[in-house]
Every structure is written in structure tokens, then in C-alpha cells.
Amino acid sequence: MIRFVVSPDNRVVPDLAAKLPGRGMWLSASRDVLDSPRTRQAFARAAKAQVSVPDSLADLVEAGLTQRMLDAVSLSRRAGQVVCGFQKCREWLTSGRAGVVIRSESASPDEFSRLVSGRRSLPVVTVPDRVLASAFGRDRAVYAVMAPGALAQRLIAEHERFSGVAGRPLPDPAGVSKEQAEL
């Protein structure tokens, strides 16, 4: 679910942290819901006033959720709770220190299978390519492993909301999409 509030100038604003003042209006984290023309009417009805809804509301929410995932990974990095790179990730996976596996959208399915071999029960979060690269200050980063804890749970929750709003199927963690499995 995503919370929205009405700003003092009667604009609808996404409140991704759910901390802004005012009466919140909650919508499902789905691109279909955010792009629906009925959503504009629902905001006006819930606010009991005329409100201005940005044309690119879904894109605005998607960008905000991407930033929140980046913030979670960056904070984990500063706390020493996440590592990047195939070898370091493999070491954390084999030693049992991993709580969640993070992979970029462009990650190779075969290499991912080698990385997580024997540890397929861990949650996998697929993020846009720029999230890992920005969090680790690199041109390109493909894999990261985060320790279990509150930051890992936050990343998983943000990823679930992002997946609904992204409106595009993210790569399957096992490397095989549903369409390929049906062939």
C-alpha cells in the first residue's frame, strides 16, 4: 500500500515513508491502480475537495521507491551489513551471514545460479541497475548480499511495493521467467 496526502496547495503527494502530516489516502501498490482515471476521482472524493493529481503519478512513485531501495542499501553499506561482488557475496552465503540476496536487473541467470547454489531459500530482491552501482560508488555492480535485520526487512518491503508499481515484470530470481517455463 502507498499513502498519499494533499499538500497545502491542493496537490496530491506520495508519502512513501507514511510520515507526512494530514489525512492519508491509501492505494494499492499497483501501476494499474495508479494509472486509472478513477483514481483521480477517488482522491477528490477522499479529500472532499478539488485536488491536482500529477499526470505522471505512477512514475513519480516508482522513482521514489527506487530511491528508498537505494537508501536502504546505502545505509546498510555504511553499517557494514552488506557486501558487493561475486566472491564476497559467495563467502557470506556459504558462512550463513546472508539474510537477503540483491541482484541487478541485468544480472546473468547462469551466474546468479552459481552464486546462490545451495542457498535458494534466501529472499532475492531484484533492483534497477543504478541502485547497486550508486550504493557502492561503482560504474556497475551486479550482486550484493545483506545481513539479516531491520534494514533487510525494509529493503524487502520496499521491493514488494516497487514490483507492483514498476508495471514491468522483473527477472525471475531463478533465472527462468514464467513464459519460458511454460514453453
From TrEMBL:
Membrane-crossing segments per the record: none
InterPro entries reported in the protein's UniProt record: Ribosomal_eL30-like_sf, YlxR, YlxR-like_sf, YlxR_dom
Gene3D superfamilies tied to this protein: 3.30.1330.30, YlxR-like
Limits of the YlxR domain: 1-62
Stored PANTHER family: BLL0784 PROTEIN (PTHR34215), YLXR DOMAIN-CONTAINING PROTEIN (PTHR34215:SF1)
Protein known as: YlxR domain-containing protein
Organism: Gluconobacter japonicus
Phylogenetic classification of the source organism: Bacteria, Pseudomonadati, Pseudomonadota, Alphaproteobacteria, Acetobacterales
